[in-house]
Structures are given as C-alpha cells and as structure tokens.
Amino acid sequence: MAKILIVDDDDQTAQQVANELKNAGHQCAVRNNGTDILKIVGKSDLDLLLLDVMLPGTSGFEICRQIRRDKDVYMLPIIFVSSMIDEAEIEHGLAQGADGYITKPIDMQSFLQRVDRMLKMSHGTEYVDAVTGLSNNEGIRRLIQQHLTRDESFALIYAELMYLKELVARADSTGGEKALRYLTRALRRCAENMGFGDYTLGHLGGGHFIGIVPTESAERYCERVLKSWHKHMSRFYEYADLNVRYSDALAKDEVLDLIMCVTFRAEGEQVTAQDILDTVSRIHKTSYNEGQAGIHMDRRVL
C-alpha cells in the first residue's frame, strides 16, 4: 500500500482518482488547492504526489519546483495530471522536475498502470551506489534538478576512469571496485580541501562519475584531482593487491587515468538536467575518441 496525495481543484476528477487508487489498495488524501502543500509533504511520508497544473492561487509547476528545491523531500515522485495537453506545456512540466505527465480525461486503466510502475520504480530504487557510497544515476539526476530549481550557477564535471576494463580483465572485479573507491576518496578529499561548502558527487556506473562544484573553482578542482591521482597512482598499484604491477600497466599504456569534462550552468539559464548532461557527454565523447586524458572545458561559455 502506498500513501498518495492528490492535489486537484476538480473535485469530481480528484474523487474519481482517489476511489480508483483506494480500490487498488492505496491510501489517498485529496486537497483542492496548493496551500501549504510543501508543509504537508514534509510531514506525511508520501510515496507519490499527483498534482494538477492549474490550481487556485498557484500552479502545480511552482509546487513541483518548491519540492525539488527542498533538501528533505526533493526525491518524492511527482506526476502531473492536467487538462493541458499542448506538447510544449508537457515538456515544460517535465522540465520542472516531474517524473510523469498524464492528460485529462484520464484513461483509468492506463493511469493505474502508470502509477503502479512509478511506485515500483520508486520503492525499488536505492539512490546510493553500493560500491562508492555516492549518489547513483537516478539520484544524481534529481540532485542536478535540485540545483536547477534553486536557479544556481554551477559547474558540472563528468569524469571517466580510463582503462578500468583493462584492469578488471587482468586483475578481477574487486580490483575495479578498489579503483572506484580510490577515485571516490580523491574526488571527496579535493573538494573538502578546497573548502567547498556545497558540492555533489555521483557515480553513474562503471568508471563514470559526476561532480557539481562552484563555477569559479571547477578548473582548479580538476587540476587538483588529476595531480593527486597521478602522484599516488604507483602506490595504488603497489598496495591495492591487484595482481597487476604498475610497471606492467605502464608498459602496456594501460595505467588508470582520468578524463575530466566540464560544462557550466549560469543563473537564470533555461536548461534542463538532460540538456546539461547531453552537453558534457558530447565533450566527453570527443575527448574519449581522441584518447585524450586530462581536463576538457566547455569553452563556449568561458
């Protein structure tokens, strides 16, 4: 059973939706306006918020942005349920951080299936990566959205640990995990040594990491990470018990190295989380295809 809040000023639709969800075994509450929704969400331990777009005195878009800005409830799954069917409105709604958008009139069978999928995804998702202890793929997307809804300027860094597959092939999977944890410590240590009060790190899987740091410090941060990584790499091979010697990896040109790609988001810039990830992915693809480790900045915005 899930706890679901329905916020819709159309009483007939709201009650119909609530009845269908109750019949499906869920616990539902209905509000017909957006007043104090953030406070209610913070106290209710909800599993899902169903949110109309047009509400008395406010909009569902604004409520969604408030939730995504809040450090305690920003992970709450949100689905817009609205009679606004224009494609641009739907895209705008999703850009506010919603997880889905359902148009009225509601096809109840499809609606219930959609809600069921969303709840299964939410309940089955741990937002922390087991190996590194960092936010995982879904978690980092939500954290990026949180920065966007706060209208913050920031630098987004996409770091890849090169030659990880080769290390795993010659050592084993535990060797790969040791390398990932070693890089995690380096990323954290450099951020903390630079005095970042607010930074975000995530592990997308494999050798791929995401970092969000202050714009003005991004390049210097990357330089520190790379310097630390190169300084301690031979020691890592020696003490990590990898069954791979540093000299052998060096001879094969397979020493673990880093590509660090950086793009920026300016205050007031109208971009989505996916836009930013797409931009940094293009920078990464170019640098990776050229086989160039090191720092690669998005020079278009410098």
If you had to describe this structure to a student in words, what would you say it looks like?
- With 302 residues, the protein is an alpha/beta fold.
- The chain folds into two domains: 3-123, 3-Layer(aba) Sandwich (Rossmann fold); 137-301, Alpha-Beta Plaits.
- It has eleven helices and twelve strands.
- It has a five-stranded parallel β-sheet with strand order 2-1-3-6-7, with helices on both faces. A five-stranded mixed β-sheet has the order 9-10-8-11-12, with helices on both faces. A two-stranded antiparallel ribbon has the order 4-5.
- Strand 4 (54-55) and strand 5 (58-59) form a beta hairpin.
- Helix 3 packs across helix 6 (137-149).
Question: Overall pLDDT, averaged?
Answer: 90
Reading off the top of the CATH hierarchy, the class of the largest domain is best stated as: Alpha Beta
Number of domains: 2
Assign the CATH topology of the largest domain. Answer: Alpha-Beta Plaits
Largest sheet: 5 strands, parallel
- Output the helix-strand order: EHEHEEEHEHEHHEHHEEHHEHE
Total strand segments = 12
Give the low-pLDDT segments.
none
Gyration radius, to the nearest Å? Answer: 23 Å
Strand order of the largest sheet: 2-1-3-6-7
Second-tier CATH architecture of the largest domain: 2-Layer Sandwich
Distance between the termini: 50 Å
Helix content: 40-55%
Note the overall shape.
elongated
Count of helical regions = 11
**What is the H level of CATH, i.e. the homologous superfamily of the largest domain?**
Reverse transcriptase/Diguanylate cyclase domain
Beta-strand content estimate = 15-25%
Structural class: alpha/beta
